[in-house]
Write a structure and sequence with these properties.
The chain is mainly alpha-helical. It has one domain: Ferritin (Up-down Bundle). It is about 70% helix and about 0% strand. The longest helix has 30 residues, at about 5-35. The two termini are about 25 Å apart.
């Protein structure tokens, strides 16, 4: 059974992951409305990824015999001043999530809850990739402020956000309900 302190923090993180997913949907809709389909597609994928992270956490709690709570989230930010603001927000969010995941791992370790600590390892690795990907995208959109199509061209050329992987990461925790 996971340590109670870890379970409480994991419930908070499930909330955070669903909130991140909603924020990415809002960013994707913003870019879609600006006729920037590649930026929109990037953030629609990010939204699904964050939702799946939440569902991996839900699945872990269910598998461990714990109650899994899902709460509502605050309304995401939907308006932005230029092409870079949404990515700046996303990078801030990814950095914050990295801190939250580190705190989860620390809570598990401090409680001697080694299975839960092991569960967090994949998320720690994932956050390094997420921050790197979002940092690269931010540099591109900052240079493309006056010509957003340059950012679209970059996304058309690069495999930003998927690590260039041919398919799902076999080391990822299973998603509750399967990969929907």
């Amino acid at each position: 059974m996971p340590a109670p302190a870890f379970v409480e923090q994991l419930h908070a993180q499930i909330h955070n992951e669903f909130a991140a997913s909603q924020q990415y949907v809002a960013i994707a809709v913003h870019y879609d409305s600006q006729t920037l389909p590649r930026l929109a597609a990037f953030f629609y994928r990010q939204a699904l990824e964050e939702r799946n992270h939440a569902m991996m956490m839900v699945g872990y709690l269910i598998d461990a015999g714990c109650e899994a709570r899902v709460t509502g989230v605050d309304e995401p930010r939907t308006s932005f001043g230029d092409i870079a603001e949404p990515v700046e927000l996303a990078l801030e969010q990814e950095r914050r999530v990295s801190e939250q995941i580190s705190a989860l791992a620390r809570a598990a370790r401090d409680a001697g809850d080694y299975p839960s600590e092991q569960f967090t390892q994949w998320f720690l690795k994932e956050q390094v990739e997420e921050v790197a990907s979002m940092s690269a995208l931010l540099r591109v959109v900052q240079r493309a402020r006056e010509d957003p199509m340059r950012a679209e061209e970059y996304l058309a050329r690069e495999t930003v956000g998927d690590g260039g992987a041919p398919g799902p990461d076999p080391t990822a925790p299973p998603v509750a309900g399967g990969a929907l």
